[in-house]
């Protein structure tokens, strides 16, 4: 377990965007932006979402408020430095823009965060990317308003301060993290999520579930050394506010996750999933996530020959939510001793009907495996193309995510990760 801090932290923080939630909320963006004096807006999306017509419709509705809105539909799924740079160059060449509206999943929302940062601040992506990959410079100039309109039920990127991307030349997934990247407003309209393919609903839903579970079991904020105001970061460990969001997200997932995958048109399930994604985002966006997310980076970054069904293109792809979920059952077996009550409580919320295993440490892994099987997640890291001989490489990649690993409720060594990955090669 973590050693007692000499001067225990006594303060936790909570940040969030303004929020509009509900069927039809996306119709009102023009009104909200006109209040900020905005005249010219770039709507940022990907080609598949553009094909649903949602982004153009949202852009057209803004005209009623005197706003000229253009749609850029060049977002790459699981964005890279190259794809983000193209979006930034498009926005620079066609600007100036008064505001940005991201319509899409985490890929579109994160791309819009990068576009906002680099059309308002000097330099290039590498200047701002987290160290040691980039120079981790904070922005020096204020950003423009960014409205995030999620069309997946997953990442919670509409509430968070991070932007995730692949740096292709280094074969590493990393991010940019700064409080100013948080969208000004999140507009969550469940009607937009009905066209989400079942495989995306499944993978993105596992992302919600892991956000809730990881922030609920994250190291408690009082277990850290006391920080100075300058040292405070958006992620401060589990705390009473983030706990509330995580618990409620688990309740909603327990009711609606399987239904949303099986019955895409079920608006009640879609609404509850959108609410769960938002709530888990508000929770983990302040508490943080740990081992399953750290492990997801090398799984997604080093995939060779697996392409997830239901996702566009044919290049190797383990989508974010899937990559996060594959080591989650083992990770929670490992973290159980640090906070047994929380693990048991989380399992009760997620799967109240599950017969309790004799060993309480098995309760949460069993509840997770049951969901994963029901919604068609692959059977472990082996099923997406990795072998036992890849484990050292995966461990090496996960160890680079110290910012995440340090949020785990107990210290995590290379040997611990080796065991987690090895046991996750095949889950059932
Ligand atoms: N910034 C954050 O806080 C944060 C958190 C978690 C994950 N992420 C990042 O977000 C990305 C994943 O985002 P995601 O899981 O939301 O999915 P996504 O944006 O990658 O989209 C997945 C697929 O679903 C399609 N799609 C999305 N919504 C649709 C709809 N309503 N109708 C039809 N098709 C639709 C997209 O076109 C795409 O093909 C990853 O890059 C991940 O690293 C960011
Ligand atoms: Zn995630």
If you had to describe this structure to a student in words, what would you say it looks like?
With 428 residues, the chain is an alpha/beta fold. The chain folds into 2 domains: 165 residues, Rossmann fold (3-Layer(aba) Sandwich); 226 residues, Dehydroquinate synthase-like, alpha domain, CATH 1.20.1090.10. 44% of the residues lie in helices and 10% in strands. The strands form 2 sheets. A 6-stranded parallel beta sheet has the order 1-8-5-4-2-3, with helices on both faces. It has a two-stranded antiparallel ribbon with strand order 6-7. A hairpin with a 4-residue loop joins strand 6 and strand 7. The mean pLDDT is 96. The chain binds nicotinamide-adenine-dinucleotide and zinc ion (ZN). The site of zinc ion (ZN) has 6 residues, from helix 7 and helix 11. This is hydroxyacid-oxoacid transhydrogenase. It holds the Pfam family ADH_Fe_C. Belongs to the iron-containing alcohol dehydrogenase family. Hydroxyacid-oxoacid transhydrogenase subfamily. Keywords: Oxidoreductase, Transit peptide.
